[in-house]
Amino acid sequence: MTPESLIASASINIGLAILALWLFSVLKKQPRNAIIYYARLLSDRHRADLPLHSSFSLPRFLPSVAWIPRAFRVPEDDILRRHGLDALVLMRLFKFGIRFFTLCSLLGVSLLLPVDYYSESDLPTRKEYSMDAFTISNIARGSNKLWVHFSCLWFISFYALFLLYKEYKEILVKRLQQMRELSHRADQFTVLVRQVPLCPEHKTRTCGVDHFFSKHHPFSYHSHQMLYDGRDIEYLLGKQKKLKTELEEKRETEEHKEISISEEKFREFAHKVSHLQSETMLREKELPVAFVTFKSRRSAALVAQTQQHSNPLELITEMAPEPRDVSWRNLAIPQKILPLNKIGVILAAAALTIFFAIPVTAVQGIAKYEKLKKWFPPAMAIEFIPGLSSVVTGYLPSAILKGFMYIVPYAMLGMAYLGGSISKSKEEIKACNMVFYFLVGNVFFLSLISGSLLDEIGEYFTHPRDIPSHLAAAVSAQGEFFMTYILTDGLSGFSLEILQLGLITFDIIRSCTYGRAKENNTYLFSFPYFRVIPTVSLSILIGMIYAVVAPLMLPFLVGYFCLGYIVYFNQMEDVYETTYDTCGRFWPIIHHYIFVSIILMQVTMVGLFGLKSKPSAAIATIPLILITIAYNEYCKIRFLPSFKNFTIETAVEIDEVDEKNGEIESRYVDAATAYSRNQPCLQRVSIEESPTNLNQPLLGTGSI
Asked: Could you give the CA distance from residue 48 to residue 34 in angstroms, rounded to a whole number?
């Protein structure tokens, strides 16, 4: 890629970003767009606080930047209080990128960049047509200047490990603080029990649960809530809700004859639902799953983390997810079918990975114009239009790749759902892992192979020991492409995210075709952690690998993370809702992604030092890899268990505070009814209430 192509890519991305941000700052002031740009605030009934311009005035159509400094003024404690620890973890991921790449940029621009540029290159003519003059490729083989890169590699690695340790420690403190503040949550008293056996006497599972826990935990067991196969009830409830909506619309138009018919149908459905929700009928629909509530958090934590039955395949226990986080459909999947579901997910992910190799290879064909002319001779026609070849090779490949990447997270989330996770948060965590490794394998490694090693792909299989050298050569050759990728993902990607162009277009089409929705019908969605975390982590991986190889990329990454922080803070405040809070369980997977990035950076440098005929530097880098691996193992022992488990110490401390305040009984009583209120098949719809408000019967609850 030539400097002209890079400049063309930067110009297009900067232009699109400015246009998108300008449009956003104007469109968000328009009252009709509040359902898009203030969806969360509208759902919280804060309409009076919205900065909307209802009158026709000039400020309403002028862009403003007041929303930008707001992101940096809000303290972390406010983010934690308003949005939970998961949101704070994401914001700290952006802050990690800003801190890390700011120091790396200062080091790279002031030290590495001059060393690379003023070096005796093996290919002196490259400066005239390539960006390689600003990378490690410009340094001659065997040059002692490579020791500068070696020293920077050690410094950058230790700085990254220091930041990771600091983040892990601080987020763990925040997690314990958050768990104390969320002492009212039902999941702290509740254990999810699967593979519940039948009661020997009454031949029902609800008696089986009650009998077992009354016998083995007589002083701490409080009650339980069985799960039911209520698909037929849910179907009828859906019909009821639809009828209720139609009934309210007819009441507004005063269609009395049709109102009486709809009311009669509604009562008919209500009678069927009431019959199916009777205790006798529900017992026939029992599933071998129960939510068991205890009288203290300590008891719940002990039961969840110990084996309850001599047969480990029965009475499988774990801490229950909070009621709003439960994936009710997946809990109904039989335990013996779950392994088949997981195998199916793996096969589907593999098929998607293979399919995605086609567009990635095509994108790299566009990026390498010389190869493109060889494979597709008509492409030479773009040379006759001045500047077009720079746009095609500089901007188009990364834009196409980003377009294909947009659908991948949603496909992976669907696969994670089919995998049988018990909660939405676990589905998103699984989706994060699948998306990250998909991006690393397809977007990063496949881009390297198809871009620079297409003719040598067989070497990987015939000479596996040469993989570090091949990786190093590929990384060095593809620096310009990934620089344009960072520009596209950051400037254009973040700007389009905040603009919500798809929703704006859909809302305009809807308003022009079948009318506006009601005022309270906002476009409210949960925060897409499964899409944001892997994408940002991939940018960290690319930045780390190129931190020593191509330091010119580092300032772009600082801008990437600053813009990302501003954009997603705004989305978190105004647009997306918080549907669950795992108390920071996303951080261990983020830590793992960054650890993988550090290892790949170090392995790449081992290969580069070998290519540059500096074996002593390559050998001296191996201890650094071992230190990094040992550090990661220490973090797994020191921090990871506290994120996976509800520690007995923390549970006892919170219990003692509640006992002192006389609140512990009310806490576990509320926890006992929380899951029945949220189980879909136990809901009821009444004509007197609004369509969104439901009565929650406490049927099928057993207690001592």
From this structure: 12
Q: Which tokens go with 350?
A: 């593999």
Given a contact cutoff of 8 angstroms between Cβ atoms, the answer to whether 389 and 367 are in contact is: no
Give me 392's structure tokens: 């095609």
Out of 184-188, 274-278, 435-439, 449-453, pick the least confident: 449-453
Q: What angle do CA 610, 441, 603 make, to 5 degrees?
A: 20
Spell out the SS3 assignment of 264-301: HHHHHHHHHHHHHCCHHHHHHCEEEEEEEEECCHHHHH
> Which of 249-263, 276-290, 468-482 is most confident?
276-290
Which stretch of 85-94, 138-147, 216-225, 567-576 has the lowest confidence by average pLDDT?
A: 138-147
pTM of the model: 0.88
CA-wise closest residue to 561 among 92, 121, 223, 79: 92
Is the pLDDT assigned to residue 247 strictly greater than 80?
no
CB atoms near residue 230 (< 10 Å): 24
Cα separation of 430 and 530, whole Å?
Answer: 8
CA distance 132 to 121: 10
- As a whole number of angstroms, the distance between CA 536 and CA 282 comes to 46
Are the C-beta atoms of 140 and 611 separated by less than 8 Å? no
Q: DSSP secondary-structure letter at 579?
A: -
* Block residue for tokens 């232009």: 15
Task: List the one residue out of 501, 553, 537, 521 whose CA is nearest residue 90.
Answer: 537
User: 139 in helix, strand or coil?
Assistant: coil
| Domain chopping of the chain, boundaries | 3-184+338-646, 186-321
HEC per residue, 500-536: CHHHHHHHHHHHHHCCCCCCCCCCCCECCHHHHHHHH
Q: What is the model's pLDDT at position 472?
A: 67
H-run or E-run covering 318: strand 316-319
